Amino acid sequence: MIVEERIYTLRPGKVPEFLALYEREGMAIQRPILGTMVGYFFTEVGPLNQVIHMWAYKDMVDRAKRRAKLVKNKKWQAYLAKGRDFLVTQENKILNPASFSPTPGVLLKNGKKKK
Q: For position 86, which CATH number holds?
């Protein structure tokens, strides 16, 4: 399993508006395609005006397939056009769990949560 961490630094004061747009439009498009959202957060202390979201994938191949499908989605493209003006910078990381690391409620089997 891998986790992708995406950090968006937004224009000052735009976090609430960005999160409202995502909740209203983006989440319904993204979640069925990307699958397992580990979490969606915003900063309170430290670097401010940041939104961090993390997604779990079976592996890099699973991620590539899911991201390619999302990019081709017309509704997603329309949503991105609405959100671009909020962004100042974007940072993406692929995180590999250490052998002893718990996976916080996200154990994947064939791209789905294990029960």
A: 3.30.70.100
The pLDDT, as a whole number, for residue 110 is: 43
Q: Do the domain assignments include residue 23?
A: yes
Answer for the pair 7, 40: CB distance below 8 angstroms, yes or no: no
* DSSP letter assigned to residue 26: I
Q: What pTM did the predictor assign?
A: 0.85
Residue 68: inside a domain? yes
Report yes or no: 55 and 3 within 8 Å, Cβ to Cβ.
Answer: yes
18 Cβ contact list (under 8 Å, min separation 6): 8, 10, 51, 83, 86
105 domain-assigned: no
**Domain count within the chain:** 1
Strands (E), 1-115: 2-10, 36-42, 50-57, 87-95, 108-109, 112-113
